[in-house]
User: What shape does this take?
Amino acid sequence: MSKINSLYNNPILTCTVVSDTHIDINHPVPALPMKLLRNAIDDSTSAVNGTDAFIIIGDTTSRGNDRNWELVNEVFKKTKRKPECLLMAIGNHDIWSDEGAEAAIGRYLKNYTLLDGKEHSKTYFSKVIKGCYFIFLGSEGDADCEAEISDDQLEWFSSKMKDAGESGKPIFVFCHQSLNGKHGLPKTFSRDESDTGPMDGGIGTKSAEIEQILKKYSNVYYFSGHSHMGISSFESIETKGYSDFEKDGNLTLINLPSLACGNHHGEFNKTGCGLQLEVYDDKVVLRPRRYNRKKWLKSVKIKDGKPYYEETIK
Ligand SMILES: [Fe+2]
Assistant: This one.
């Protein structure tokens, strides 16, 4: 057990990234996912040099009802301190509720506002931290497991990416769903590989357009969750045909495990795990961390025999 400390000296920024926390009143023991979320926030905010943002890539709740959001608020109230900045994508589960998608999206926006004290009116948004763009895509309706991305959102995304590209800094894009067909999808979407539709586990009909925009720029990192894949190495794309860390031209794709539900297909499938993102002048580092144990995940050699992913900024 040790406090989070950056791998190298003088990072420009550091963030905690987790996904699929699935806070759920109907969980057999609702306190379990709540504890995992609280552990991650407490570990993140206790970092030796602080953490610039706490990021959840969707499915914060298992259903977007009032009771589940009350539990999320309860978790944040019980943490040692609040994250400096909360960046919370919307997931398909946050959109599902007995009262329909519009009501659930309203609850996500209301509770995001309650949690970080800033007004939120859309499921897509961006934030500039220490000169780096953090761009969040988000479904605007119920598209089942996929995301409903409007033409307005695509236009907004394209213009934000242009601004981010002009910054000359690495660009971080987050969406609950992966691009279609990445990280071994569609087969890795389910534990028993029973899903066979080409878009299963992916963002859906706008995937190709989003990918085209992402690939216009250098040093772009696209983070997703959704499929509840455990942590697997960069090299496992060669041996198993899928990985959490993929390169597609200039684009780096990262899929996060579920923080609080069971994971599958990974070399490490336990709960409590996410990634510390560290940005330096010349490189980006991603380090799997077991927030519930306050320690780095060392058992999976992520890339080049090291328990982290490192890439030089070009
Ligand atoms: Fe999920």
In short: The first strand starts at residue 13 and ends at 18. The chain has a mean pLDDT of 96. The CA atoms of residues 283 and 312 lie 4 Å apart.
